[in-house]
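Format notes (please read before filing issues)

Several people have asked whether sequences and structure tokens are stored in separate files. They are not. Every record keeps both together, in the order shown below: the sequence lines, then the token lines. Line labels are part of the format and must not be stripped during preprocessing.
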Amino acid sequence: MKQDRPEQTTTVRESYTPHQDRSLTEAVLDAIEECKGEDLLRTDFVLYEDINPDALESLFRHDAQPRTTVTFDTDGVKVELWGDDGVKIRVTDRSDE
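Then the structure lines:
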């Protein structure tokens, strides 16, 4: 009898603080690139088709509530952000679902 083994899911975790030399949107894009293993500049990926990057930046500005959380799906990955002394980012590959 052949046993199905669950596929390994790729998950990438990042942290972002406003003191970094990149925006929150760039941090999210970096995490998505790492999870997918591809350069998003070389694909037709467009983040704003699934979420407004300006609204995301506004939600997690330096004085935002630490309980702020956002979850969205984009291009075969699930992106989760939450405030915790900065912003924690988790990107999970969902292309096998």
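For reference, the curators noted about this record: Residues 1-6 have pLDDT under 50 and may be disordered. The two ends are 24 Å apart (CA to CA).
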